[in-house]
Amino acid sequence: PGARVAARPNGTRRTPLNGSLVIAYGAAGMGYVIPATYLPVMARDSVPDPLVFGWSWPVFGAAAFASTLLAARLQQRFSNRAIWAASQGVMAAGLLLPVLDPHIAAIVAAGVCVGGTFMIVTMAGIREAHRIAPPEDVMRHIAAMTAAFATGQMIGPLFASTLHGLTGSFAASLLATSAALAATALALTLNSPKTEVVRHEA
Q1: What's the start-to-end Cα distance of the chain, in Å?
Q2: How far apart are CA 18 and CA 191, in angstroms?
Q3: How far is residue 93's CA from residue 86's CA, in Å, rounded to a whole number?
Q4: What burial class does residue 201 get, using C-beta atoms within 10 Å of its C-beta: 0-12 exposed, 13-18 middle, 19+ buried?
Q5: Model confidence pLDDT, tens digit, residues 27-84
Q6: pTM for the whole thing?
Q7: Parallel, antiparallel, or unpaired for β 13-14 and 6-7?
């Protein structure tokens, strides 16, 4: 069923914030920032040669650039939710790669998975907010999602560094964050509204 729209005295309409979107966007912020922050460290621990481990970050950036070109094609064929959920799933898989195989090839592949999806997630998320919320209320939805993303970005490095200090490895933080990404990707799929908000012309 579509979201209920509450009328306010001034004539504007408000819809309830979608918890699955807000939480999933926050998980994406955390899932993106941990490898974005620590990927060069993981690569350096695997291969001490800077000419080798130094490629981890450029690969991440190149994948992010390429993903913006791919996003336009995806939007022609799939829904915002489907793109977002699939990208979140790829990001989750990417975080698992250095855990399963802590060598440079897996770390670079993780950079491709995360770098190649986080921009798609942010674009699909904003488009989905525009789809489910009335125009006069959409900025409130985007603000909540953006705050969640920023919170994930702040928590992620602290969470990862704390566990690294306790265990000497990033494996625990990568596993936990991957699980959060997978769970929220599933929630996006299961909680997808059947209809969008009807937009009335002024």
Answers
A1: 25
A2: 9
A3: 11
A4: exposed
A5: 999 999 998 888 878 877 777 666 566 666 788 888 888 888 888 888 889 999 999 9
A6: 0.84
A7: antiparallel
